[in-house]
Design brief:
Blueprint (H helix, E strand, L loop, with lengths): L4 H14 L14 H17 L2 E4 L3 H23 L14 E3 L5 E6 L14 E7 L3 E5 L3 E2 L8 E9 L3 E8 L5 H14 L4 E7 L4 E11 L8 E4 L9 H5 L11 E5 L2 E5 L3 E4 L3 E5 L9 E5 L2 H24 L8 H16 L7 E3 L5 E3 L1 H10 L3 H23 L7 E5 L15 H4 L8
Antiparallel strand pairs: 1-19, 2-16, 3-15, 4-12, 4-16, 5-10, 6-10, 7-8, 7-11, 9-10, 12-13, 14-15, 17-18
Length: 438
């Protein structure tokens, strides 16, 4: 049977329009050919010895598995960002910094190139005049407990950059303005149209339906979305009654200047000087500017240690959240706690200790003074070993998060016989790997 490519294209565009990109991404999410070969070999080795099992395929298990995998990936990426994938670089590389990370945060840089003898980049002076923002259609404020529209079946059309939708609903005599607005907000949010809707109250007994786009930046004529009900299949009039047709705030680009030179960007993540990838979080205060540069060596080592311990704590805490829901997760938490205590017993001089829940505490003042005044080669070697241990466990979780799902073992494989690799052993979660990455 012939395949209609136009139909496939429409289907792809329909689903692609519903996907919301991850808020962060970096180069460590991509892989070289050798990396993929190593992952494949690991899956083959795993599948040869994995027992046959049955498990719960509920939404809760799916969310748990995705969360475990993504937290393992996040930990790996953070360790990679401080050179942890290369033993020769960890705690040695120079670190890019922002003088005001609450306003402009560096999310990635080419700092590792500095270890290869590259010339230091100049410092950049940054001012942020305006953040990129979404389109907003703010409705009229109507009395919350009243209703000025007749009962019946209504619908309206929503047109986005990629698709058109018709939303239908019914109004009964008992409905109030706020009830209608709340129901429409849930309808819009649940349909994943690339929009966000909420009900706003003015404190004087009135409420309005506020609709904004997920996308930000200027989109020219037509904007990110439009709402109408002239050609809809059911009764019209609800759009003008609620006042959600008019664009009250256009999508707009970020406006910023680097060393006095003005720029615009369609989003709040920009590259500066080909070296710093920066996320704008707020506008700079009047008369102030942000410095982007490279920290001295001892500051970099201190920050990398703090970053490693903070990332490790986030990884352990994320796993501990599921101990009650998925008891096998306690095996991971206990293993991390018991093994890390072996390393932390040798790191007291650096101000690193272990808390009762298995996370790491760090005395930053003591750490800074020790790094400045003492030879800490042995302690840094211990920290490198700790980083390798934690990274190895995170890679195992990333490869097979199903290992910590409660499941019923059906049969173990005979260890005395050779087994063929079962390429489908990870299929229980492999369909989730692209969740949110389009």
């Amino acid at each position: 049977m012939a395949i209609n490519t136009n139909v496939l294209s429409n289907v792809y565009n329909f689903y692609q329009a519903d996907l919301v990109p991850r808020s962060t991404s970096n180069k460590y999410d991509s892989h070289k050919k050798k990396d993929l070969q190593d992952i494949y070999k690991s899956i083959v080795k795993l599948s040869k010895d994995e027992p046959v099992f049955l498990m719960d395929r509920s939404k809760e298990v799916e969310q748990y598995t995705i969360h475990m995998k993504e937290n393992a990936m996040l930990f790996r990426n953070r360790v990679a960002s401080i050179g942890g994938l290369d033993e020769g670089n960890i705690f040695n590389q120079k670190t890019a910094y922002s003088s005001d990370p609450d306003t402009a945060e560096i999310i990635d840089s080419a700092a590792e190139e500095l270890e290869k003898g590259a010339e230091l980049p100049e410092e950049y002076k940054l001012k942020i005049e305006q953040l990129a923002g979404p389109q907003v259609n703010a409705g009229k404020y109507l009395p919350e407990d009243e209703n000025g529209i007749a009962e019946g079946n209504y619908s309206f059309d929503v047109s986005t950059l990629n698709s058109n939708y018709e939303l239908q609903f019914a109004i009964s005599p008992e409905d109030t303005n706020k009830g209608i607005q709340s129901r429409l907000a849930r309808l819009i949010n649940n349909f994943n149209l690339g929009l966000h809707a909420k009900v706003d109250e003015d404190g004087m007994g009135n409420s309005a339906l506020i609709i904004s786009s997920h996308g930000i930046g200027e989109k020219g004529r037509g904007g990110h979305f439009s709402i109408s009900d002239e050609d809809t299949s059911q009764t019209g009039g609800i759009v003008d009654y609620l006042g959600i047709r008019k664009i009250t705030e256009e999508g707009h680009d970020a406006v910023y200047s680097v060393n006095g030179e003005r720029h615009t960007a369609p989003g709040n993540e920009v590259n500066i000087g080909g070296f710093y990838n920066v996320r704008f979080k707020d506008v700079t205060k009047e008369g102030e500017e942000i410095t982007l540069g490279i920290k001295p060596d001892f500051e970099s080592v201190k920050d990398n240690i703090v970053s490693l311990t903070g990332s490790y704590n986030d990884f352990v805490k994320a796993a501990a959240e599921y101990v009650d829901q998925q008891p096998r997760t306690n095996l991971l938490v206990s293993y991390m706690k018991n093994t890390s205590s072996f390393y932390t017993s040798s790191l007291e001089s650096l101000g690193v200790s272990q808390a009762a829940d298995g996370t790491l505490d760090i005395d930053e003042e003591k750490l800074g003074e020790t790094l400045k005044n003492e030879d800490v080669t042995e302690q840094l070697g211990t920290l490198k070993s700790f980083a390798r241990f934690a990274l190895r466990k995170a890679n195992e979780v990333q490869l097979n998060p199903m290992d910590y799902v409660d499941k019923r073992i059906v049969a173990y494989k005979n260890p005395a016989k050779p087994h063929y690799a079962n390429p489908y052993i990870t299929s229980a979660y492999s369909g989730m790997l692209f969740n949110g990455y389009m």
